[in-house]
Amino acid sequence: MALGKIHSNVKSFFRSNIQKRRRPSTSSSECEDQRPKTKLALTVIANDGGSGFNQQLASPFFRDLPIEIRKMIYGLVWLGQWDHKYHSSRGRHLHFRDGHWTNTRCVMYGEDEDLGLIQKNMDSVHSSGKGDLLLWQKRLASTWGSRHWRCEERLQHERKKSVDQTNFMPMMLVCKRMFPEVVESIFESHQFLFNDFFSAHRFFVYSPSPYASHIRHLDLTFSLPFHEYTPFIVDQSKSRVRELWEALGNISCLHDLRVSLDIYDRGPWRKVPECGITEQLKDLRVLRDFTVELPPSLPIKTLLPNMQNLDDEETAFKVVRRPSLRYWQFCPGEVERFTWETHTKGEKSHCYINLIREPSFVRNPYMLNFF
């Protein structure tokens, strides 16, 4: 069944006597007298004496169908012609930009679940000499993570807008009685993806949506600056990340949750205070799949406290680690391949970067004392 037909049937079932109306040439008072009056229509009177919305008791859609059937109908309306083409058939990226919210379809493929896919492509370009290594380096360093680089590039370039189209707005505008059911169905039926911390914090903490508790499937990819991790290094209680984790605890029936954590302003040296920043995540109740994606477990030497890895910790979630970086742009316009070498002294080990083309020293930013 075509989507347009589904939406048309739902609307006609809701208003069985709907007719096309033309703007009348008579006065507004005459039009008031000519409007058909339905005896079964009920107007709710608010406690303060104001007029509320019509409960639509004459509509067979609300009168005869239970909420479970109505939600099944809404689920059919959300089916789209592009769903089968992408890995997440109902994945929607949410962004707050230029003062308003936008949502775009997630266009990642199944192969993008391979966290080493970008560097495998860089291996091919490096060995063959064919391809744009700088373009792949840009994707590797993206704050959107290694899985959603296609989604980010769609926002940066001209894209096919029909891929992003939904039936959300037409359904929400049918009537006030249907509005909350439609919004709840949207939140329950789709996977919401946030790839920037600002949008996620605004959605769940700063100006939370009253329907956020209905979210069932959530994917958070955060590549944060160093200062967002400092509260977990020096044991400060106030943290925007902690506020977000606390807000996620208000989601009543979360089925799937994936959290990806990274740091973008330390070059290829990727190390975060894993134990501290995931402490609150252990208290979240996720019914099915709960995954936390972390940087590679490298023995990066640091002068900072509370930087232990999560390897030996018992957690309520599955830990997935990204592969070690082996490409980086250390100088403008040039991408270099490197390896991680490990030096062991006694029981302690630490790693350093060894450039393949021309051996040179690459400073470890974690050896600087920021405090």
How would you portray this structure in words?
The protein has 371 residues and is an alpha/beta fold. The protein has 13 helices and twelve strands. A hairpin with a 2-residue loop joins strand 3 (91-97) and strand 4 (100-105). The protein starts with a helix and ends in a 16-residue tail after the last strand.
Keywords:
alpha/beta, 371 residues, 13 helices, single chain, 22% strand, 29% helix
SSE map:
Blueprint: H1 3-14, H2 28-34, E1 43-45, E2 51-54, H3 60-63, H4 67-77, E3 91-97, E4 100-105, H5 117-128, H6 133-140, H7 149-156, H8 168-172, H9 179-189, E5 191-194, H10 197-206, E6 217-224, H11 226-233, H12 240-248, E7 254-263, H13 274-277, E8 286-294, E9 318-321, E10 327-331, E11 334-345, E12 348-355
Parallel strand pairs: 3-5, 5-6, 6-7, 7-8, 8-9
Antiparallel strand pairs: 1-2, 3-4, 10-11, 11-12
Helix pairs in contact: 4-9, 5-6, 10-12
Question: What can be said about this structure in brief?
Answer:
The protein has 371 residues and is α/β, with parallel strands linked by helices. It has 13 helices and twelve strands. The strands form three sheets. It has a seven-stranded mixed sheet.
- Gyration radius, to the nearest Å? 26 Å
**The biggest beta sheet, please?**
7 strands, mixed
Strand content: 15-25%
Number-wise, the strands total 12
Q: Would you identify the regions where 5 or more consecutive residues have pLDDT less than 50?
A: 1-6, 10-51
Average predicted confidence as pLDDT: 85
| Shape verdict | globular
Distance between the termini: 63 Å
Q: How many separate helices? A: 13
> Structural class of the helices, strands and pairings?
alpha/beta
Estimate percent helicity.
25-40%
| Strand order across the largest sheet | 4-3-5-6-7-8-9
The ordered string of helix (H) and strand (E) elements is: HHEEHHEEHHHHHEHEHHEHEEEEE
The assembly state of the depicted protein chains is: single chain
